[in-house]
Structure formats: structure tokens, C-alpha cells
Amino acid sequence: MQLEGIEHRTTQVRRPQSNGFIERLHRTLLDEHFRIKGRTTWYETVEQMQVDLESYLDHYNTKRPHQGRMMEGQTPYSMFKKGLKLIPKEQRAKVA
User: What range(s) does the Integrase catalytic domain occupy (predicted)?
Assistant: First the structure.
């Protein structure tokens, strides 16, 4: 799918330059969530793991300050809201 004015790109396999954001997220999930929870929690079902993962992702996106490029210690959610304010309301309806 290609949105008006937004270029669509696919990532290349085994090429960090094209999927570095995802690789970094995977590492953060391992280091900050799975390795810690794996030591302290015994999961009986996948659903229990999913609940913990969703809780961590909520923390990651709304409460945890990020150090990434141009983030300036803000959360991804706050940056997303700022980005929406820059898009005219008419275009927001088309994107959603």
C-alpha cells in the first residue's frame, strides 16, 4: 500500500541499514523485557506472556523516555502526537 506523498520501501534480508529500527527494537525487547521476565516469571500459557508483553510495550511507548535520533528524551507516543499536529485535519482523515 502506498499513501499519497509517502514512499513505500521494503526491508532487505540481513541488511541492518534497511531494518535497523526493527533490529534495535528486538534487542531492547530481549534486554529489557524477555530476559528479565524469563528469570522471574513462569508462564503457563502464551496468553500470560502476551499480557506481560502488552504491559511492557505500553510502558515502552508511553512512559519510557527514548534516546534515539531527534527524540530528546521524549516518548514515542508524545512524538507521534506532535507529528499529528503538523498534518492538516483533512489529510489525517485520508491517512487513517
Answer: 1-84
pTM here?
A: 0.64
- What digits encode the pLDDT tens for the residues 72-88? 888 889 888 888 777 77
Going from N- to C-terminal start, the domains of the chain cover 17-95
Stretches where the chain sits below pLDDT 50 are 1-3
26: left (phi over 0), alpha (psi -120 to 50) or beta: alpha
